[in-house]
Each structure stands twice: as C-alpha cells, then as structure tokens.
Amino acid sequence: MIACLRLLLALSLATLLVACASSPSSSLGELPRTPDASIEQLLEQAATSKSPDKAALLRLSAADLAYNQGDLGRAGQILQQIQLDQLKPAQQIFASTLAAELAMARNQPKAALSALSHTSLQHLSELPAGQQIRTGSIHARALEADGQTLAAAKQRIVIAPLLKDDVATKNHEAIWALIAALPTDQLQPVGNDDLAGWLNLALAIKTAGTLEQQQAAIDNWRAQNPKHPAAIQLPQPLIKLKELASQPVSKIALLLPQDGPLASVARALREGFMAAHYQAQQAGQKPPSIELYNSSRLTSIDDFYRKAQADGVQLVVGPLEKPLVKQLATRAQLPITTLALNYSEGEQAPAQLFQFGLAAEDEAREVSRRARADGLHRAAVLIPKGEWGDRVLKAFRQDWEANGGSVVGIERIDQPVALAQQIANLFRLRQSEGRAKSLQSTLGTQVAAQPSRSQNIEFIFLAATPQQAQQIKPTLNFQYAGDVPVYATSNVFSASGDLNQYRDMTGVMFCETPWLLDANDPLRRQVTAQWPQAAGSLGRLYAMGVDAYQLAPRLGQLKALPDTRIEGESGSLGMAAGQRIERQLPWAKFVGGQVTRLPDTPR
Question: Is the pTM of this model over 0.85?
Fold first, then answer.
C-alpha cells in the first residue's frame, strides 16, 4: 500500500512540475518553477526520476523554494548538487541567478557577479519577462554593491520597460539615485538613448549652482526630452527640488552665544556669516533677513523655538554649544529646520537637524584620501595624547583601513624630551643600533655601522601643534627618516605670517581651508580689511561663518542630491551620513618657510 502511495505521489509531482514549468523555448529548455510541494518531496522525486532533465528541474525548484523560505544554507547545498554544464541554457541562467541571489544574501557581490558571468546569460533576452526581471535586478544590486554605479544604472534601465506599478516606480527612483551619485566627470552622455538622457539630466543639474538655476535646468531638459521616462515621471528628489525652489527662505535666526567662554568664537562666526550676507546684498540678490538670538541667555530651547516661530523664522543657524546640539539630536523632531554649528556624538538625529563644524575628523579623513590618491599604503601615526588625539586617530584609521591601508605604528606625543625616542621606536632604530653593537662584540673590534631605519613606513600622519611640528621634522631628519613624507592636519599651520616658524617644517604637507590658502579671495580681502584677525588662525572660523550662510538655504538641495558639493571657504562641502556636513580640503606644503599650494587630486 505504501509503495502504491509513493508511486502515486511521484506521478502527481511529475505531472505538477510539467504543468508549472514554462513552455519550451526552442533549444533553450524549460525554466523551473516552484510547484505546490515541499522541498523533501521535490528532492525525493528528483532522486527517483529516470530523466536527468526532469531531475535537474526538480532540484532547481527545491533550491529556489529553500531560498524563498529563507533557508539559505540548504538552498546552497541543493544548488551545489546540480552540474551547471549539463543544464540547458534557460536552466543555467536560472541557476546562475539563484547563485547570485545567495551570494548577495551573504554580502558577497563579487561572487554574485562571477555567477552572472556565465556564457548562458547572453540568451537572457530570449526568456520570459519574469526571468529577465529577476536576473537583471540581482545583477544591478551586485554591481551597485561592488561600486560599479554606472553599470548598475545601465542594468536597471534595461529592465525598466518590463516593470509595472510600484516595482516600476521603485526601479525608476533607483536609476536616478545611481545616476545622481556619479561624479561629474563620469557624466559623459553618448547618443540619444535613455541612458544618455539620464546622464544629461544629472549633468545639467550638477553644473547649475543655485536652486533657481537647477530648476531652470530641469525645465529645459524636460522640454528637450519630453518622451524620456524621467520627463514623464520626474524622480522624487527632483520634485522636492522644485518645491524648495518655490519656497525660498526669507528669514533666518542666527543663534549664537554673546557671553561666556565661546563668545570670541561666536563673534568670528557671526562676522563671517554677516559678511556673506552683505556681499549677497551688494551683488543685487534678495537675501533672507537675519535675526540675531543670544544662546547664552537661553532658559529653554523650546522657548526659543516658540519665539522664533512667532517671529516668522523659517530656518535656524546654530546653536554652537555642544550640550545644546546634543539636546537637539535627542528630539524626535524639531519645529524649524536647524543647521547646528557643532556635532552631537551619536548618529541619530531628527530629520530637521543638520550639523556643520570644523571637525578634526574631517581633516583626518582628508589625510587618508590624499595619501591613498598618492599611491601609499602603510602609515605611521604621531598624535597628541588625550581625547582629541584619540578622535583624530579613530577617524583616520577607520577611513584608511576601510580602503585597504594599514597602520604600522602609533606614537602619542606628550613630553618634548621623549620625542626622539618615540620616533626611534616608530622606525626601530634602536634595534638597528643593537645589532651593530652585537656584531662589534662578536668580532671583538670596532664596526663602522650607520643605523638603518625600518622601510615598512611609507608616510607619517601627523596631528600636532606648530611648536610640536617644529621639533618633529628635524628629529625625523636626525633619525635617518627625513625622506619619509609627512601628511598633517591644519593644526601645524598657525597662519601667523612668521616665516621663521615654518623653516624647520620644510616638506611637511598639510590640509587647510581655502580661506587661509587664497589671500586674493575677494570676500576674504574685504573681511580682513575690516577684521585683520580673520587673516590668522581665527580665519577658519570666519570661513565657517561664511559657509554657514551659503549652506543655510541649500540644505534641502544637499539632501535631495547627496552627491552635490558646495565649494566653500572652509572646504568643499557635502552631505554625509546623519545629515552632517563633511569637508574636503585643499593641500599645501612648507618650502623654506613659505606656504606653497599643492595641485588638487581627483576626489
């Protein structure tokens, strides 16, 4: 009786599988589909089937069912039992697609792309639309995860005509997100197909400056490309841009302390901010009105927002005080969009809060980017002891190691008398001297030996004051490491104009704000004529104030187009995770006491 039941079950499964399989597609073969049966039933039928083709279809169906049930391990085991080269092309495409999906579930995009490189994929366009969509979708995901942004966009454009309803809309938005993330130098349209249209749209928007100019660029592009998918259905970020352009900011609250320990910092920020405001007025623009509020007199942040709303404020710039910024970051939402002039410690923040400051972490990441662009891989680090040095080291190390670099030595600077020993430790000079003494003892005679340093260090990342840097470079020379490149943060530059201070730092490269590297900038000349201190180290705060004014009306633009950059006075500004404004800086070098601007590297 049991044997009869098994035979009946086998016949039923075979009939069900044939009914559920796709129609034969000439020599390409059938596509498996998951029937209304369990994984065990499918595998049992495959084991008893006398037809290799039917057995393969059953196993593919079982593997696919396991994948859809979330049992990735079993799906992979079943798939490994199937010999790909013995399948027909349609089944090879199905198996390769499933292998790619399993690889992506394990976060292995390169393995997924390897699976999708099978020669059978050249027949994909001959298969039913459902399979084309499934294969094309996982291919696009794998390419994006592998950093091949343009290729991922191309894949999504290929499957777009096959999609409907919500799936089509999501793919449409994904195409724009990929295209918008491309740097400008990769937006090179060729021909007049859909891809060229997408690239032209992104190029037109990125080369426009203000929201109004971007709006005009979108309208012009739509007029020239009325049948393009993006003209028919404008991506959501571009719809948001249109809304922003139609709702200009007319009143800004500048919330800064006028008393207490941060008053001098706030004064420089305020003077830079207002200088940019007056420059806009002189240029014939219609800038928003500015209302000043004293944060050092606040009794409640909620009271401030209520008053600001009553005063008609549409955007807040400030506060500067870190405790207030932390307080804002813990809120579920804010009543008015706010650009804080400092950073909270956590990554969570309400959607209305943006954060901007002269973060030392930005400069640490800038050192990582520059050294990487210069082809270096192994770094030694000299940082001051304490919390600030630890933060700088953490930011540098995270970015450096995430991009394949290695840190081969770390020394924390503290006492000047220990500096020579610390540098010797980095380069293992004492080991070299010890070997020479050991050889001398063995031979029983004098040995002429010059200490040799470790060749493992390709460059030094230095975060130090000008006074410390003045000691470090001569010590490197003395310790046979004068030829090792030194990449430093802006802390080494006091902008004092004292050339003698920098003579001992010849060769040290450092990142710095455009404000302090370009004395001929028109706004800087105007500001320093009124406030001479803006030409010195305080100039970084004046630059930040100028940039806060430039950023304020463009926060929505940066959020809608994350790859947009604003070339500011404190650096090239872009939106990072958590709506934090991140700076990229130009580079300079000390040469004989002079500061020489270095050519920019590709970003």
Answer: no
